[in-house]
Amino acid sequence: MAKVLGVVIALVLVMALGIYIFSQVESNNKVTGSAVSETGGNTENSGVKTFVVTASNLRFYLDGVESPGLKVKQGDKVTIVFKNEEGFHDWKIDEFNAATKQIKAGATETIEFVAGRKGIFEYYCSVGQHRANGMRGNFIVE
User: Fold this and answer.
1) Which residues are CB-neighbours of 24 under 8 A, at least 6 positions away?
2) Out of 4, 43, 123, 137, which could bridge 67 as a Cys pair, Cβ 3.0 to 4.6 Å?
């Protein structure tokens, strides 16, 4: 009886771990269309995309979505308005040589770059082990 109970507990733990891992993968693949212009309007067809990304608690957020996928078209001019609410962070994407300064809580940094090639690229925080701890997301260029 104890052996059967041990097997049941092990199966429940494996299932719970699987559900957790799946939910983490899904949250990293969410794409949000929250590009806004400097005046707050949608810039879907203008070739200019502005994303207001917030850092807090070792995560990036956009409109409440954790680790959002940022989606643009090849050739778009991209503006990242990076707001740090907690800790010491930056926002970086290697393939486009784009990075904010490392800033403290309460600070804001803005950068601009051109999404010059198609693909899925990772943006991340380069401070310490923040990237390894999940402070990253996908930058998608179509």
Assistant:
1) 134
2) 137
